[in-house]
Amino acid sequence: MSKIKKAVALSFDGKEAPKVTATGKDLVAQEIIALAEATGVYIHQDEHLSEFLQLLELGEEVPKELYTLIAELIAFVYMLDGKFPEQWNNLHQRILDKA
User: Fold this and answer.
1) What's the rounded Cα separation, in Å, for the pair 60 and 95?
2) Is the pLDDT of residue 6 over 90?
3) The pLDDT of residue 99
4) CA separation for the pair 52, 65 (Å, rounded)
5) Segment 12-28 mean pLDDT
6) Kind of pairing between the strands at 19-25 and 6-11
7) How many CB atoms lie within 10 A of CB 22?
8) For residue 82, is it left (φ>0), alpha (ψ between -120 and 50) or beta?
9) To bridge 8 with a disulfide, which of 3, 24, 28, 53 should be the other Cys (CB 3.0-4.6 Å)?
10) Is residue 3 within 8 Å of 21, Cβ to Cβ?
11) In this structure, is residue 62 part of a structural domain?
């Protein structure tokens, strides 16, 4: 018997806490994932995080207890897109140049 596929979508505008914008199971989860893939949205697979976020209502902010985790995920996505804080003074490029 296969596991039930679940998905949760979050939005973050940089001004307020991330909010739940979509949740779904099975076919709805597959649609959320397909839409994310089609629009270039990064997907993070974490069964435990998904289970917890499934408990939230649409439009509800992510609880403060998850801020650090979600912030790390958002920071990682920025880095995947080649966006780094200015105070890094192109540290990432210096690292790449040494490699």
Assistant:
1) 39
2) yes
3) 60
4) 11
5) 92
6) antiparallel
7) 16
8) left
9) 53
10) no
11) yes
Q: Is residue 1 part of a domain?
A: no
Rounded average pLDDT over 4-33: 93
**Residue 54 pLDDT grade (very low, low, confident, very high; cuts 50, 70, 90):** very high
Q: Domain of 53: which CATH number?
A: 3.40.1690.10
Tokens of 74: 């958002």
Top-confidence residue, 72 or 90: 72
For residue 80, what pLDDT band results from cuts at 50, 70 and 90? confident
Q: Identity (one letter) of the amino acid at 97?
A: D
Say how far apart CA 94 and CA 44 lie, in whole Å.
28
Indicate the number of domains in the chain. 1
Pick from 14, 11, 32: nearest CA to 23: 32
What spatial distance separates the first Cα and last Cα of the chain, rounded to whole Å?
A: 46
CA 46 to chain centre: 10
Task: Return phi, psi of residue 48, to 5°.
Answer: -70, -40
Q: Which domain holds residue 80?
A: 6-98
